[in-house]
From TrEMBL:
A GO-annotated cellular component: membrane
UniProt xrefs under InterPro entries: MFS_trans_sf (IPR036259), POT_fam (IPR000109)
Statement: the UniProt record of this protein carries the keyword Electron transport: no
Superkingdom, taxonomy of origin: Eukaryota
Keyword entries, A-Z: Membrane, Transmembrane, Transmembrane helix
An annotated Gene Ontology molecular function: transmembrane transporter activity
Claim: Lipoprotein is one of the keywords in the record: no
Membrane topology type: Multi-pass membrane protein
Location(s) in or outside the cell: Membrane
Name this polypeptide is given: Uncharacterized protein
Membrane-spanning parts: 82-107
Length: 108
């Protein structure tokens, strides 16, 4: 959490809503607090955070369960493939996050 963001609304929202809704609400509050400083970069940054929170919330909830349903746990070969699926899924998410953070820092 950055030093300029509100603490109390974020705590309230994080107790009652999912992670993506917390990020969405926090970004909206952050925009409203800095309405006098709305420049193009701020608007793009905040709208990007909101889109990311919606996409991340849907991906984290749906991808593991939908992918795991494709494997039959009774079949030994598919049971082994289930472990590979989860390893590749987590590796892809972490690699994408590291690349995104590194690339954004390099661009800025």
């Amino acid at each position: 959490m950055n030093s300029g963001e509100p603490v109390t609304p974020e705590l309230f929202v994080s107790w009652h809503l999912a992670s993506y809704a917390t990020r969405l609400d926090r970004s909206t509050i952050h925009i409203m607090m800095h309405s006098t400083l709305l420049r193009r970069n701020v608007v793009l940054s905040e709208s990007g955070q909101q889109r990311r929170s919606i996409g991340t919330g849907g991906l984290k909830a749906a991808a593991p369960s939908l992918g795991a349903d494709q494997f039959d746990e009774e079949d030994p070969e598919e049971a082994a493939s289930l472990f590979v699926y989860f390893n590749v899924l987590i590796f892809s998410i972490v690699t994408g996050a590291i690349f995104g953070v590194t690339f954004l820092v390099w661009v800025m």
